[in-house]
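Course assignment 3, question 2. Fill in each field.
Student: A.L.
Task: Predict the tertiary structure for the chain below.
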Amino acid sequence: MSAGEALAGPDGGLRCPWALSTEDYITYHDDEWGRPVHGDDALYERLSLEAFQSGLSWITILRRRTGFRSAFAGFRIAEVAAFTDTDRERLLADAGIIRNRAKVDATLANARVLAGWAPGDLDELIWSHAPDPAGRPAPKTLTDVPAVTPESTALSRALKKRGLRFVGPTTAYALMQACGLVDDHLATCVARRA
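Answer field:
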């Protein structure tokens, strides 16, 4: 077996190796990661959480997701867009989230930008950058999974052009993976879609 191949999980099923370190990861990997996500608020949440994850491990964000949802009004764009300076100070003091000033500010600013978009615009913009799955062979090992693609670079550029922050190409690709625009489950992984 070469490095980065799917490994047997607690139930014997083969999974992407990154998913096996904790039960939280296994559940996220099996039930969420790579599954299609639609809806402006749902995609705003994923975009925000991927931005907060930048420079950190995903498990740090995953274990605080309930806290994030509570702190950011369920990531309902209209509600977060109405947050005040008092709300910002509350967020920066909230131990249930990552209290990074630049990331909090970007999340608030992005909600204000998105509040001016027509319903469905964020969903449409993000999904318009999904690559043709027929042109993407299933990765055999983790080394076959890119960190950035031409599509994620284009998505990042499109989001930035529309005024969004903290949406670089790597964050955009992580969003694409998490929201099912691409299926980067390894070829032998039990969670790979048919």
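Instructor remarks: The chain is about 45% helix and 0% strand. The mean pLDDT is 95.
Grade: pending
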